[in-house]
């Protein structure tokens, strides 16, 4: 059984929905925002049903994707796949070991899975190295006025 994920609003509240009776409750979750680890909460509904949820604290929604692309840093190309995408950034997995430096800038090129098969080319900053093959990156500019912006509107 998978544990459902609930999202935190800008007001630092989350809405818990009971699987048994269908009632929903909005609660203040501000005390969990600064935790570094994943936050798993248990709650008990007024009907007596107990359930667990995972609290999603990201600023923007992230979508799992499989988009072919290339990560470029220091004139070296690392072919691979964008595995998740948000308005703020991507997670990129390379096909080979990559000598990618964290906190340095790079470029990413990838092809969207929209009907036009639009090619996106963006400057990024590498924020996290999960392994020698997987990297968390943020876009240098989060204003997307091209096909990527349309993708967020219509395919998310």
UniProtKB/TrEMBL annotation:
Which superkingdom?
Bacteria
Annotated TM spans = none
| Molecular function GO terms recorded | cyclic-di-GMP binding
Q: Which Pfam family, any one, appears in the UniProt record?
A: PilZ
Q: Where is the PilZ domain?
A: 56-142
Record's SUPFAM superfamilies?
PilZ domain-like
Q: Which Gene3D superfamilies match?
A: predicted glycosyltransferase like domains
Q: What is this protein called?
A: PilZ domain-containing protein
Which organism is this protein's natural source?
A: Desulfobacter hydrogenophilus
């Amino acid at each position: 059984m998978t544990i459902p994920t609930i999202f935190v609003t800008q007001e630092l509240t989350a809405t818990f929905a009971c699987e048994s009776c269908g009632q929903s409750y909005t609660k203040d979750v501000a005390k969990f925002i600064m935790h570094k680890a994943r936050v798993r909460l248990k709650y008990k509904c007024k009907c007596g049903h107990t359930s667990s949820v995972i609290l999603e604290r990201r600023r923007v929604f992230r979508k799992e994707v499989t988009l072919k692309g290339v990560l470029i840093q220091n004139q070296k190309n690392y072919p691979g796949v964008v595995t998740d995408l948000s308005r703020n950034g991507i997670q990129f997995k390379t096909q080979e070991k990559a000598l990618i430096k964290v906190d340095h800038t790079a470029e990413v090129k990838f092809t969207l899975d929209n009907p036009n098969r639009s090619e996106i080319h963006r400057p990024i900053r590498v924020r996290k190295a999960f392994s020698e093959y997987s990297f968390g990156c943020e876009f240098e500019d989060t204003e997307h006025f091209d096909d990527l912006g349309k993708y967020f509107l219509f395919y998310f």
